[in-house]
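Predict the 3D structure for this chain.
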Amino acid sequence: MNDILLRSLTGAIFVGVLIGALMLGPLATAILFFIFTVFGLGEYYKLINSANPGSNSLITGVTGGAIFYILLVYSMIIDLTFSNEAFIYILFALILPIELYRKKTNPIQNVATLLFGWLYLVIPFYLVVKLSWLHWNMDETASGLIGLFILVWTNDSFAYLTGRFFGRTKLFERISPKKTWEGTIGGIVFAVIAGLIISNIIEQEVVFWIVAALIAALGSIFGDLFESLFKRSVGVKDSGNILPGHGGILDRFDAVIFALPFFYAWIVIFG
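Done. Predicted structure below.
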């Protein structure tokens, strides 16, 4: 199959499934992002082990991260009186002693890379579910979350197109040789335009969506650069191949992972 056709078909199915889950509500969103969490963590720990064999246990990393995700979602549903941060410390306290018995070199590095996988992936995916839950409880659709994803996709698409046709000045050649300042600026401009359109369609404050567009654009820039740095350090092109033409879960969500915490904070600040 033609690469462009395969990429387009995979992208359309992915977008349809994602938006469908967000529209169905927090339960469907939680299940879908649990699947993304498991596959994403699997990609992460495989990449870590490819660079440093045996440094992390794939089973421990994925299982621990999945449990962490479930506990966070469960605590949100039953509205526990103590903060979700308690689960972070509990899991860390349970995981850290494991390294005592593994007899591996670089134990501190091993623990750091193990826990970073949870911080990097689980918490942003949990925030998707939390935002879906908040919208649902306020009898609102998931328009805010869908809007964020649209902004990220708009930035990515137009950054690529603008860079391809007008790109001359390298943005960060050491990490991502193909990215240019022209493409980056183009992505930001079109993300802001998309934010204005979204604000008009769903009749929400223009200021909110302009800032949200900037958050999405900056998340796309730094999220992509960080993942490029990560993949370059372990010598791979894609994090996985679960999405033909798009790579893996980490490839597909690199921008959202960075943008979501700031988007969540912006919703809280804006009220």
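The chain has a mean pLDDT of 85.
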